[in-house]
Description:
Elements: E1 6-8, H1 13-23, E2 27-30, H2 36-41, E3 49-52, E4 62-65, E5 68-72, H3 77-82, H4 88-99, H5 103-106, H6 111-117, H7 124-130, E6 134-139, E7 142-147, H8 148-151, E8 152-154, E9 157-158, E10 165-172, E11 177-185, E12 195-204, E13 207-216, E14 223-224, H9 226-232, H10 242-250, H11 252-255, H12 266-288
Parallel strand pairs: 1-3, 2-3
Antiparallel strand pairs: 4-5, 5-10, 6-7, 6-10, 8-9, 11-12, 12-13, 13-14
Helix pairs in contact: 9-10, 10-12
Amino acid sequence: MIRQFDYLRPDTVDAAIAMKSRHGERACYWAGGTDLMLQWRQGEVTIDHCIDLTHLNGLDGIEALPGEIRIGAMATLDDLDRAASMHPVMKALGDTARLMCTKQTRTLATVGGNMCNASPGADLSPLFVALESRCLIQGPNGRRDVSMEDFLTGVNTTDLTADELLRAIVVPTPPARREASYRRVARTVVDIALVSAAVSLTADAGTITDARIALGSVAPVPVRVQEGESVLAGMALGDIDAKHLEEAAGHAAAVARPITDVRAGAGYRTRMCPVLVRRALADALGRLGGDE
């Protein structure tokens, strides 16, 4: 059976939100459409009205501002890749975007769409969590700001209400030097992660002032490895050796809550968590100037 929907083209963000409020749950925002159209064709979602966001001003672009980088929700994965030289944290995001799907799809798929789809296996979400990112949200009652940790609430679910949309993702850039890294295991080059790990290390005057570790694909949402973070926080870069990395990474398996599915077993995912965390920590630490 041929499925049909009405195509709506608002002139402003406010008009798009008004359309969503008017048409309700069976109206969907259209960003890149790479996830939505697949779900629609497979009958996983029913759409009566499709609200096109692709031409609206203020939702795209990647901008370096004092103390933060603002990534518009309509920025594509290819935009993220091409902005890799903007800042050290953008290198990690650009490198991660390059792992996702094919080059052709990356020119269409949007960062905001990827976050709003909220797949447990998404590549960007653990890295955004590790980078303390915030989501800028707009709805009929105004704008609000929520951390990425709180934005992602479950499998394919977010903190967005029915008629809100994601405007941008803000990544803080502290005065001290920050380096981030993402590591994953996947079946093919363009497949989503079977298990993944992201880390962010901030150093000032040769000392780790902040360490954040997040796991992906081992729970409904990215999970922090806080005991592992505490191992490194406050340490001098020159004092960190392989034993410290092993100790920090060793806490990863304890917080993982993986499932067994057709792609991988829970046991394999759990065993790979410390391996990927250690690799990501070594990479980030090496670029900060510490021992690998």
